[in-house]
């Protein structure tokens, strides 16, 4: 069972959300914020440190690449009003973690 | 801009000009439109100055272009709904024919999407909804948003209560409410047809409450009429035409936009659900404000009915309509539902700010500073000059060079009379109109 955690970011000053060991990062396209899970589906590489080329995000560990369009559609639930961003990220029902927002090095853009 | 876009823009401007120049939309002599639901003045010159190839930005939402575009759009929508004069059609048969003429309906269809994009397209830029909105996130966001709205301060009602002329302030609020109050649930009726499962029946349940179960005295618009009568206000459709603020018209237009276009259905349900879920406490508070302002004389059935039935409508709209739609139709539908919630929240906040600024403005006569007057700003008025209201684009002064002029800035109460040598400051964004019974010369000059 999962529950939805609400998190508020002031973007672009804050561009990442940490929930326990999970990291989400902002991928902005033409000013529109998408909040993407950073864990690569292959071996858990850090997608936020990957590069976007020709519409695909390439994981820096083993080079697996993912369509950015698809990552965005599957991203966290986001409402954006200018620099104010509200997002909902999943967490295990039993987990005690609260989301923490931060600024981090994000190469995927 | 490409050639085809330019041609398109020109053809839209032509259609707007022809529509606005037709009989229903011609000028009015006085500040009030009396007992004629088919007469909705549109200023052809100001409409002609609009560049329809662009869209208003959020910063331009309180502007004269916004006022004109939203007036036009309201006429486009409402010429698709039936209005009959309360005292019968006698003497207005020609106006009835003109308002609903095939030619005007055709022109309305031609300009509608462009006018919608111009007036409300900024919502696409101002509100962004992304990601995968599954049911749990949708419900979490909705519940939090409703909670915030229900527990928020109500600054508009505080503004009314504390206004030096609180009855005039309340009446300006009621005039804005009349946009929807006298035709309540007309936009909702646009989605009663078709076939969309159990949610169609849930929507219908809300609708029949709005329509008083077929009992005219219980219909919400009748209750609103009773409220108007008890405050000595007119209950004729658009009697206060000139005193609708652009943002008030836009909120009303929004509901027509998202119901007229079927792809707006989910946005409509989101917006409607948020309002229904927050109306009960809001109308409870409004009732207290009106009672404090008017005492026992005011008829509050309209507020009382909403304060009660919207407790049910809120639950029904969220749990029997919105959430089943989100679960059944998936993330794309859910994004639309959330977009509607956010759009009406933004529009409501902008409309509240606009109304509070209008209520706060207390125009006073002062000595005119002729050094600021430019000859290009000089306008001659006579008793035959049509009345119009406009939104000041920036801080300006209306200077009376000769004669006498009345400044109108609210739906009820006496205007401010200015005589030769006097002026009044109009803050940018405020709605005002001038009327003169004698030959008068004024100059509207910017305040630098």
Give a short summary of the structure.
Chain A is mainly beta and about 110 residues long. Helix content of chain A is about 5%, strand content about 50%.
Notable characteristics:
heterodimer, A: 109 residues, mainly beta, Rieske Iron-sulfur Protein, four-stranded antiparallel β-sheet, three-stranded antiparallel β-sheet, 1 helix, 6% helix, globular, B: 448 residues, alpha+beta, Heme Oxygenase, Chain A, Jelly Rolls, 3 domains, five-stranded antiparallel β-sheet, 15 helices, 10 strands, 2 iron, 2 sulfur cluster binding (chain A), metal-binding (chain A), Rieske_2Fe-2S (chain A)
Walk me through the structure.
- The complex is a heterodimer of chains A (109) and B (448).
- Chain A has 109 residues and is mainly beta.
- Chain A has a single domain (2-92), classed as Rieske [2Fe-2S] iron-sulphur domain (Rieske Iron-sulfur Protein, 3-layer Sandwich), CATH 2.102.10.
- Chain A has one helix at 68-73; strands at residues 2-10, 16-19, 22-29, 32-37, 51-53, 56-58, 65-67, 77-81, 84-92, 100-102.
- In chain A, the strands form three sheets. Chain A has a four-stranded antiparallel beta sheet with strand order 4-3-2-10, with no helix packed on it. In chain A, strands 1-9-8 form a three-stranded antiparallel beta sheet, with no helix packed on it.
- In chain A, a hairpin with a 2-residue loop joins strand 5 (51-53) and strand 6.
- The radius of gyration of chain A is 13 Å and the shape is globular.
- The model of chain A has no long low-confidence stretch (mean pLDDT 94).
- By secondary structure, chain B is an alpha+beta fold.
- Chain B folds into three domains: 3-123, no CATH class; 127-360, Heme oxygenase-like (Heme Oxygenase, Chain A), CATH 1.20.910; 365-446, Jelly Rolls (Sandwich).
- Chain B has helices at residues 3-20, 44-48, 64-78, 93-99, 102-120, 122-126, 135-151, 155-162, 166-181, 186-189, 198-210, 220-230, 246-260, 265-294, 301-360; strands spanning 128-130, 365-367, 378-381, 389-391, 396-402, 404-408, 416-419, 422-426, 431-435, 440-446.
- In chain B, helix 7 crosses helix 15 (301-360), helix 11 (198-210) crosses helix 15 and helix 13 (246-260) crosses helix 15.
- The model of chain B has no long low-confidence stretch (mean pLDDT 95).
- Chains A and B meet through strand 1, strand 4, strand 8 and strand 9 of A and strand 1, helix 7 and helix 15 of B.
